[in-house]
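hi! just following up on the protien thing from before. the input was this:
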Amino acid sequence: MSDAQTSSRREFVKVAGTAALGASLFPSETLAEPRVRRRYAIVGTGDRGSGMWGRDLVQRYPDLLEFVGLCDQNPKRALAAKAYMGINAPTFTNVDEMIEKTRPELLMVTTVDGFHHEYIIKGLDHGLEVMTEKPLTTDETKCQAILDAERRNHRKIVVTFNYRYAPAHQQMKEILMSGEIGSVVSVDFSWYLDVVHGADYFRRWHRLRKNSGSLLVHKASHHFDLMNWWLGADPVEVSGYGGLGIYGRNGTFRAQPPTDNCRNCTHTRECRFYYDMTKDKRRMDLYAACESADGYYRDGCVFREDIDIFDNMQAIVKYSNGATMSY
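and the predicted 3d structure came back as:
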């Protein structure tokens, strides 16, 4: 490889990460006319929606984005998100009403994963540009419905996989593209979630497979996307296994109904997973103060018996270039 080729490749990898957000949010004609702000709306105003796709954009792109609406099935949370973001946009509980009244150009979907397809399809059918948090959706039926909506509206949505743009991951891509280690034929990918961040998935809506598709979809989609990118190939054959060995029904004690959450539990002293959400003002505002509207507890018990996602997972993947991965 020539010096010119090497320089070009490195520049591509470095620029890709910083350009990803701007390219997703702003088409070239908007960047050419920075005074014309894109009309932007969000459906789903929890941590991610009000933070990364809300307040962060308010602070970073005030000259390029105009927040015109916030939508959440919990009206109290939408108002709390509005206050946190520091905007004056109206709030809604119905996305069709929001779109009709505020006329956004771009809709960001940051709801529970199992409902992504509903809002993606509504946005496309309203003629909007649509972005969604990962994962795209949770099963093949919903995925097909999204693909059908893309075709009939002659549009493509953006799924915001950001993990591949971490500097270390870009450097790995650069090494693989250079051919310095030869062709990859076998991959061993192990990922260990600790009992802080890892346990948190079992407190929230993610604990139910109907909501998240399990961590093989919600969490591992980051890793599968990363591997697809690193290898420059697509998976063609997959087999997997998952088990629930620690959380859920495996607990010897648990918070009791009707709340089933840490703040109201009698086992706080003996539970190694006890989480004191009262120390986090933002979450108290977004969640605790809004519980009366929908009964959702952000600090749910990790031993609730309805938990049906896996806490240990394995997969064997064969790729289109012949490489295999043990995950």
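The chain has a mean pLDDT of 92.
The radius of gyration is 21 Å.
cheers
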